[in-house]
Each structure stands twice: as structure tokens, then as C-alpha cells.
Model the fold of this input.
Amino acid sequence: MLNNLKKLGLATFLVAASSLSYADAIDEIPPLNPDEGRPGEIARIPDENDFRVCTDPDNMPFSNNKQEGFEDKIAEVLAKDLGKNLSFMYAFNRFGFLRNTIKAKRCDILMGVPPDYDPVATSKPYYRTGHVFVWRKESGYDITGYDSPDLKKGLVGTTDKSPTTVALSDNGIIGNAKPYRIQRDLNKKPSEMIDDLEKGEIDVAIAWGPIGGYFAKQAKVPLMVKLAPEYEKVNARGKTYWNMSIGVRHGDKKRLAEIQGALDRNHDKIMQILADYGVPTVPVVEGDNIMKTFKENKKNKLKSGD
Done:
């Protein structure tokens, strides 16, 4: 059960963070050869002078094929620091993304993964963020937590099956929520939920911080953004804050050490990029681990007799 929870939690986070993308106006992405990278088949040979990033061509504010995302900008800073040749390998971030990108050696670097994400080796966390409440300023709402009265006054948009649905359910609000797909729909814009909020089709949005913060900043009407409280101590399945790291293939120790050095040297520049994109951040929590929290929750419940 613990292993299943870990896989579900990380998969849920990764899909939520990259969900609701759309394919309009995307330049043609070269098709993937499913045999490339398999034993006995032709495969790219990684070059230590390359800083080749595995990324999505249409997943703002994280990345796009015009290098306009904040992960694109951070990659540029790191590559410049290391004196390496920056390039990007594009694939839509759906199921099979890892298998067809970094695992097939088509690229070498993932810009944003949790530090305990098993498929890759990871750097130390370089930022931490969580989910946010977003609402129209004109509404006069004041939302600070899942028990805030204003959260029960209107229709709440949230990503279906994301950790926030746990908190909404526990607080009796899930029946008043509008779900947005967690599985990517390439016909939808990344800003779909915030667009609906701006148009008045929902009254509050609960979104992953980088998505909510960035698109609220782009909105044509004033929107309020407030970090939601961490919920994992109440229910580990409702974990809403995550440390973020850079990932490389297991065994790629030299590359990882170089990236770690560049992250350390460019901390202030990276934090400024995040701020420029409206990404809300909080201090990194060393040793943060969903399985540790789950075990602590279970132990505390047994002590209390719940």
C-alpha cells in the first residue's frame, strides 16, 4: 500500500503540474521513433558538453517550444554558468514521457521533479511551492484556509483527483466543486481554470502554485492569489506542498554534481525568475517525504484511536 501511495502521489503531482495543455499553434514536433534507445537499436550518445533538456512544447508557465517558460529560463542560466550547449528535446508530457525522453537518452535533464522521484537521480531541492486559492478581487472574498466561510459561497474549481480534492472532501466542499481534468487534454489551454475564474464561470480556483500564480498575473481583471495551507499533517493524501529538484538518469553522477554546483551559484537568479513568473515559493523543507508523513499520520491515528 505504501508503494502504491508513493507512486500515486508522485504521478498525481506530475500530471497535475503539467495538465490542461493544448496543441493550438504548435509547430510540428518531430515524431518519436519507439525503437530508438532500445537495446540493439540506434540511440543518441549523450555528450558531456550538452545541456539537453527533456521538456514539453506547450506547457506554460513551465515550458514551450519558444523557450518562454520559467524552466526554460532557468535551464538557460544553468547552461550558461556551466559553459554547455543548451538544447531541448520536445515531447508532450503524457504517460510514457520518461520512457520516450530521458530513458531513451534523447535528452538528459528534467527541470522540475520532486527530490524523491524514483525514476531519476535528483539534485537538492532548488525551490518549494504549493497550491493556491485564486479569486476575483471584486468578490471581496477573504480565503485563508479550507475552513474559510467564503470558500463555501460559490463554485470552486479544482483539478480532479489532485491532492486538493482531499481537503475539499474533508471540509464538506467537494459537492460545490467543478472538476478540471487531471489527464492532459491537448485541446485545452493551460490557463483554462483561471480563464473560467476571470469570466465568472467559477468563483474560486484552487490550482498548483506556478499555474495559478502565473495566469492570475496575466489576467485582465484583478485576481487575488493566496497560498493554501499545507494539508498533509491532517491527511497525507492531501499533501499540497512539494520541494522541486532537477532530475538526471541514475548513474549520471558527474552531470548531477555539475548541475548542483550551478544551482548553488545561481540561487538568487533562479528565485528572481520564479518571482517574475508569479510562482509563489516558500522555504525548502529538508528531508520532506510523503511516505514519512503517511507513516506519522497512521501512527498518530492509532494513538488517538481514530
In short: The domain at 2-127+242-300 is CATH 3.40.190.10 (D-Maltodextrin-Binding Protein; domain 2).
